[in-house]
Amino acid sequence: MDSMLYLVDLFGTMVFAISGVILAGRLRMDPFGVMVLGSVTAIGGGTIRDMSLGATPVFWITDTTYLWVIIVTCLLTMMLIRHPRRLPWWVLPVSDAIGLAVFVGIGVEKALNYQDSALVAIIMGVITGCGGGIIRDVLAREIPMILRREVYATACIIGGAFYTTTLMLGATPESAFLSCVITTLIIRLGAIRWQLSLPTFALDK
Amino acid sequence: MDSMLYLVDLFGTMVFAISGVILAGRLRMDPFGVMVLGSVTAIGGGTIRDMSLGATPVFWITDTTYLWVIIVTCLLTMMLIRHPRRLPWWVLPVSDAIGLAVFVGIGVEKALNYQDSALVAIIMGVITGCGGGIIRDVLAREIPMILRREVYATACIIGGAFYTTTLMLGATPESAFLSCVITTLIIRLGAIRWQLSLPTFALDK
Amino acid sequence: MDSMLYLVDLFGTMVFAISGVILAGRLRMDPFGVMVLGSVTAIGGGTIRDMSLGATPVFWITDTTYLWVIIVTCLLTMMLIRHPRRLPWWVLPVSDAIGLAVFVGIGVEKALNYQDSALVAIIMGVITGCGGGIIRDVLAREIPMILRREVYATACIIGGAFYTTTLMLGATPESAFLSCVITTLIIRLGAIRWQLSLPTFALDK
User: Can you tell me where the transmembrane regions are (chains A, B, C) (predicted)?
Assistant: First the structure.
């Protein structure tokens, strides 16, 4: 289970790095700028989580595997992807959904290792899942899409709530983790497939 | 005194969350995006303060009351406010001024619990008061108004300086705190009432 | 060596603060907003570095000299600089290059005091050198130029790699530090002199 989880975590890191690289490519950054944006997207959320919890040095200092995965991913993406539109349209969003789901589960789990509150754990799931993408969009001077639509923060919150609820109901940590990842994934995949979004909260200007 | 202070702190948290919700409404975010923006505005400044001081886990992890207040505030604001322009014009700025003044006082006080420098304490007051609003504006892709005009950072700095100066002159922590809050509040209210602003520092492009 | 290094570090702090003040002047901020932008530019990178390493309280809390240098620098810059274009064109970029080179060296050194990984040390050099400028540009609502061109992150990465490589090859920490600073400086000065930039990585929109 643990080594499986670690591999999926690294897969999430790869996918998020790729999304940073693609945005960087649209902004015509230089190769090292590309790596900065890829890295920030992949580890930004977990870094804020660890800083808030006081879990320092943060995770990518303790285990540099994450950094190597990001470096190799960024290099390969720059070499191989020239025309992202030629990929089947669903490859990137589905990969992103898998990465997101795993990151939410890991965020909740790590928070529960440090403190007891279920609410804080859910929030740490959201931060781990959404933080990197928000920093990526801010650096690219876009209003973070994550906040605007796409049932994105929503999926994280519901997934995180599944984790803490099943755990409270007596589930093992493993099955609570799985229920969280699967819930988040299903909601995101459903939102992608049927282009769901919540009604927005709109005020007059 | 302490429980009074705690209540005013929670009031500041509410007010700042509302200002995040209103900006989110203008950007037509989805409900969970609204809650993210409301939360960031309310606890962003104190989070940066605690991370810098090494006061981790940060305050809203140690005491989740803040989070519950934010959640309820965001939900109520979304349900009740549809036309913010129908409120008397002064309600939001005056509430914001009260929140700001309290946050500055709390930031200075917390910094003095961790270290001795008056300068660092004043800066922590500014960070606690202005940090959340700056993050809110960055996420909404606006140049933080706090930096541009309105005697906003200015009020925090002068209020914080009152705290440390009166304390050095022999005041009790309670009266130093009060003098800080009242000074910050008066400056902000005066700036709102008479639309004061400092001359800007302007360079040729 | 140590006191020399400290002086150069303070020089770097001054130069970065000036670059924040000049951007603030172009955005017509009020004087305290100017000081916020100057401070963030000068200490932002080192703050993120210290938070990630768990080196808290962060450096400017432990040694407030940095803050005083920033305050005096911001005040003097506001009083003396009205027409930055009247300075010889190379003064600001060359000073910035010196500041950057020193910050990279200091970031690498500090990281090596806290952990063993050369990769993490190089990244901390990049964060220390580029972090403040990135926050400055985000607050001013610009896509960080550092990421786009100018061989900026590139110079930091190569300089940091020189530090860790020479150290591994048996150099003293002093000479490793010097080789890092000189390498970073030469690359940046060369990039400024000949307007070098790497080919950008560009994707179709």
Answer: 6-25, 32-52, 58-80, 87-106, 118-139, 151-170, 176-196
User: If you search the block for the tokens 């190769």, which residue do you land on?
Assistant: A31
- Number of neighbouring beta carbons within 10 Å of residue B92: 15
**Residue B158 has what pLDDT?**
93
SS3 C29: strand
**DSSP category for residue B198:** P
Q: Report the pLDDT value the prediction gives residue A151, as an integer from 0 to 100.
A: 79
Chains A–B, number of C-beta pairs less than 8 Å apart? 103
Prediction ipTM score:
0.87
C24 Cβ partners below 8 Å, 6+ apart? B147, B201, C33, C34, C37, C38, C140
- Is there a contact between A148 and B29 if contact means CB atoms under 8 Å apart? yes
pLDDT in tens, A46-93: 999 999 999 989 999 999 999 999 999 999 998 887 665 666 777 778
Say how far apart CA A135 and CA B139 lie, in whole Å: 9
Mean pLDDT of C101-117: 92
H runs (alpha helix) in chain C? 2-26, 31-53, 59-62, 65-80, 91-114, 118-139, 145-148, 152-168, 173-193
CB contact under 8 A, B200 and C30: yes
